[in-house]
Amino acid sequence: MAAALRADFACGVYFVGKIWVKVKIIFGLGNPGFQYKNNRHNVGYMVVEELRKKEKIRLRRSFKFSAFLGLGKIGKSDVALVEPRTFMNNSAVCVKKILDNYKISPKDFLVVYDDVDLPLGTMRFRKKGKATHRGISFIIESLNGEEVNRLRIGIDKPGTGDLSNYVLSDFSFQEKEILKNVISKAASACIDWVNFGADFVMRNYNRKDKG
To answer: Which of 154, 108, 114, 111 lies closest to 129, judged by CA?
Structure first.
């Protein structure tokens, strides 16, 4: 079905044959480019890649939206997976452009990103609130409202050294197994958000245990 979809959304729907279909959108934040692929700052991309594989959704380059975008289904729901290619701190440019173009309501999109304030192996889902992470804070600012579904993936804080260098560094060999587990769980949380909603995800995934 995904191959038949056209990425020319209007009013939160896309055209399949003669039917307009409502869509939910999952944004994974990160930095484009091979040199950033395995960085801590790119776990948002990693979750979208895991979703893409699990749900067999193909991502295509959209120059209009400065993103890689894939259309398909999760359960009975129609979804779009998006990786903004505008670099982390300019993610709001892509996100706002898509949301304005598609007339998406706050409850129908989710942003996934890294968070140094959470331990590696943990994640937290929130429906609204302020944020210190620049990528999501600029998105909130651009939308003039704090009602943004977000899934924060913990990457730990550096013990010493510069934070910017830390988030742009790769995970260590020892950390990669923990990362693998939490990326898989985060993808499952995204699927459950699509199928059951934000409250379900918060009840079932906002726990203190790692991985």
So the answer is: 111
Report the distance separating Cα 110 and Cα 81, nearest Å.
10
The residue extents of the domains of the chain are: 2-205
pLDDT tens per residue across span 188-200: 999 999 999 999 9
What is the helix (H) or strand (E) element at residue 37, kind and residue range?
Answer: none
Residue type, 62: S
Query: CATH topology for 2-205?
Result: Rossmann fold (3.40.50)
pTM of the model: 0.88
Measured between alpha carbons, how far is 113 from 153 in angstroms, rounded to an integer? 6
* Among the listed residues 163, 160, 181, 188, the one whose alpha carbon sits nearest the alpha carbon of residue 53: 188
Q: Which residues are catalytic?
A: 41
- Only one residue has tokens 């260098």, namely 165
